[in-house]
Amino acid sequence: MMMQNSKFNKQNPWIVGITGASGAPYAVRLLEVLKAAAICPHLVVSAAGERVIAEETGLTMGQLAEGCVLYDQQDVGGAIASGSFPATGMIIIPCSMHTVAAVAHGLADNLLTRAADVTLKEGRPLIVVPRETPFNLIHLENLVGLARAGARVVPAMPAFYHGPEKMQDLIDFVIGKVLDQAGIDHQLFRRWGL
User: Fold this and answer.
1) Which residues, 6+ apart, have CB-to-CB distance to 72 below 8 Å?
2) Residue 153 forms part of a structural domain
3) Which helix (H) or strand (E) holds 34?
4) What is the DSSP string of 86-134?
5) The whole model's pTM is what?
6) 39-45 and 69-71: which strand pairing?
7) Which of 95, 38, 37, 41 shows the shortest CA–CA distance to 65?
8) Where does the Flavoprotein domain lie (predicted)?
9) How far apart are CA 151 and CA 156, in angstroms?
10) Is 161 annotated as a binding residue?
């Protein structure tokens, strides 16, 4: 585990899980925005997530985790595995259908899925950002199961009403919607009617 930077607010950590679905730029941007808001991300990344980060962004885990508290996914005894860890909530971005299925069915077999299970158990916000298309019936039923358990499902579906001009604008829209669900203020996109 890496040391936490003292500039971060220690009272409101968010757990961020990154899995092997395509969409690593969303995760990178979320971490940037959280750190800029003085919220220290407690980060856990699946093995497939590490691969996708490298392939889609060119970042190493060291570069990605700078300024975060990093956990090994196989360390099921990591601090974020306990309900006594004072997390505000957890965001899984991007969230693979494998992880959706595991969390929807309570299969807490690694630190990422255990942290998600604990987040639901403690009644804290769990925000999942699936990045898959098309969804099959199994995917949809698992997403419904998560929603019934209290998770917020925020698919990585950018909008166009705010007049995006570059890819970063599309990424920022999705991250803004995630932050809305987390109750974190942002100015990442122009809101409808404003």
Assistant:
1) 44, 78, 111
2) yes
3) helix 24-36
4) --SEEEEEEE-HHHHHHHHTT---SHHHHHHHHHHHTT--EEEEE--SS
5) 0.93
6) parallel
7) 41
8) 14-181
9) 15
10) yes
Residue 162 has a pLDDT of 86
158 is a domain residue: yes
> Residue 41 has what pLDDT?
97
First to last CA, the chain: 43
3-state secondary structure of 158: coil
The CATH number of the domain holding residue 56 is 3.40.50.1950
- Interacting residues of 175 by C-beta distance below 8 A, sequence separation 6+: 26, 29, 30, 33, 186, 188
Query: Which residues form the domain of 118?
Result: 9-182
User: What is the identity of the amino acid at 152?
Assistant: R
Give me the count of residues in the chain: 194
- 87 assigned ligand-binding residue: no
Residue 1 falls inside a structural domain: no
Say whether pLDDT at 64 is over 90.
yes
How many structural domains compose the chain? 1
**Is residue 3 in a domain?**
no
**Was 6 annotated as part of a binding site?**
no
156 appears as a binding residue in the annotation = no
Consult the annotation and say whether 157 binds a ligand: no
Binding residue per annotation — 98?
A: yes
